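user: Kindly work through both lines:
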Amino acid sequence: MTNPKQLSSSTLADIDCVLRVASQMDQLRHAAQTSLLSTTIRERGYFLPSEEDEILANWGSYQYARSALYEVIGSMNSSSRKASEAVLAEFMVGYAAAALLVEAARFLRSFLSEEPAIRSKLNEAQPQFKIESGSFEKIQRSLTAPSNALQIRQARDFYENHESEFDELAEEIPSLKPIAEIIKRRRDVFAVSASRYVKSRIRDRSQQITKTLLHQGLMGAIYSIQQVGAIAIGSLSTSPMHRPQLPETIANAMQTFIQKGDILVTRKESALTNLFLPGFWPHAAFSIGNQRVVEALKDGVKNRSLESTFQNDAMIVVRPKLAEDKINSAVQRAISHVGKPYDFDFDFTRSDRMVCTEVVYRSFSVVAGIDFQLSKRAGRHTLSAEDLLTVAFEEMHFEIVAGYHPAATEFVLHGKDAKELVRRSIGKKQVDWGRMG
């Protein structure tokens, strides 16, 4: 059977992400059941501003964790026709991610059915994140609706019909064992009754659902899981299967230009996290030289290849205005954070877990007296990628030296043109681009 080293790096990263999100979801569930609603709040019927921070912080953590699970599901490959062990492993990871998504949605609907105060709070519009009023109800209803039982039923049936093979695979590949345990502990999540299945089939006769029923076996089951993921974000994303990647000419130009100490601020056009993170530019990576970056993604803080950062649609290069020894010190600080898990709470008061911008924050904050101002968002004090761009735009310790967005230019922009690219997008969620360069 397969040696664990033969699993792709992306599958191993997805396994790590699912395990961390499972733990995060357990913590959020515990917080919801024990501390989010006091007797006083229930009697009052609404939250005071001081109480609102905790509920928004937990809601933000759930959204970030949910988006990470969606990325795992979206990475599954349904184009192959060979049921190899690698594809079976992908199915297991995606199935576990889908189970966590649906379990969390069902818990929230059940938990909040008699909690009007918190339900009302989560349904409020969040204009700064482009979230409309009633979004909580829409998302949760879509994930728990009987009409989705067809996808759930097909994925579950395939797993249970081949459970012995999956158990054997987990024994041969130790990294899959905890994934198998997640699935077994959540067996009831995908347990759809026959009557509910029939009702759903009568209720929904769309061509897409019919295609799912006709597509048998592993590939059909993978497609079903991807449908669950698409349902989770369907009302929020226009291109759920978009694969971001800088054009080869742009990547080559960026590769020769990027220096040690540069901050690479990036954007994926269809990423779910765009909706829950402030500004147009949501992500950042730290260049450490030799075509490597330190970057916090869903699988944690890692030393990654520059090519991984090129798996974005757009990029801004920010360069520190510091002496070489200061830059080297910041690089060493960034490297010291490698191995830490991702922080789905976005809590900058702790350094044992990190998000992408916190790597930059903690690497440069004590170098040359740089004092980043944290902003309070969703109950947490954080530093966003857009905050970094604002500092660079004002040429405080950093400067904007290059940029690219496919809707604005066919080339890498430099100097004033790159700064203009940032000026047009900063402070916005959507940009009406004009061609530049």
